[in-house]
């Protein structure tokens, strides 16, 4: 999270815990920001090409990664290979751009904790609620956490998140 992915994976591999061997069996969700990939507010196609190249690299290839690279209010790229533990089948998701529900910029007061809220919402929706990937991304990307000061002083409720999602439709 919020680090350059190759260094994170190399750190895990060098830990001596057998992580490299396990990466072929585990599904990892890795989320970072455009700050770490040098393309903040940049061309979306360049962003997606960078993701695709990484997923095909020696570190990314043949492993189960869901790679999410956020670019603040501009949205985020998502792609990778996921493994269904029930069926054992894997699915490659070509990197694509996801546009989140927009919060009016005059209402945003502080982005502290926005990434943490995104990850929490994604995990909650994917794991706890067993929702499809796009539904989980929509649930996670609302930005409602940015409507108050501090990382958790205005954590949105489930109802508030659903109201925001429904207002987009």
Automatic annotation (TrEMBL):
<dbReference type="GO" id="GO:0010043">
    <property type="term" value="P:response to zinc ion"/>
</dbReference>
<dbReference type="InterPro" id="IPR029056">
    <property type="entry name" value="Ribokinase-like"/>
</dbReference>
<dbReference type="GO" id="GO:0005737">
    <property type="term" value="C:cytoplasm"/>
</dbReference>
<dbReference type="GO" id="GO:0004454">
    <property type="term" value="F:ketohexokinase activity"/>
</dbReference>
<dbReference type="GO" id="GO:0032868">
    <property type="term" value="P:response to insulin"/>
</dbReference>
<keyword id="KW-0808">Transferase</keyword>
<dbReference type="GO" id="GO:0070873">
    <property type="term" value="P:regulation of glycogen metabolic process"/>
</dbReference>
<dbReference type="GO" id="GO:0009749">
    <property type="term" value="P:response to glucose"/>
</dbReference>
<dbReference type="InterPro" id="IPR011611">
    <property type="entry name" value="PfkB_dom"/>
</dbReference>
<feature type="domain" description="Carbohydrate kinase PfkB">
    <location>
        <begin position="102"/>
        <end position="156"/>
    </location>
</feature>
<dbReference type="GO" id="GO:0009744">
    <property type="term" value="P:response to sucrose"/>
</dbReference>
<dbReference type="InterPro" id="IPR002173">
    <property type="entry name" value="Carboh/pur_kinase_PfkB_CS"/>
</dbReference>
<dbReference type="GO" id="GO:0009750">
    <property type="term" value="P:response to fructose"/>
</dbReference>
<dbReference type="Pfam" id="PF00294">
    <property type="entry name" value="PfkB"/>
</dbReference>
<keyword id="KW-0418">Kinase</keyword>
<dbReference type="GO" id="GO:0006000">
    <property type="term" value="P:fructose metabolic process"/>
</dbReference>
<protein>
    <recommendedName>
        <fullName>Carbohydrate kinase PfkB domain-containing protein</fullName>
    </recommendedName>
</protein>
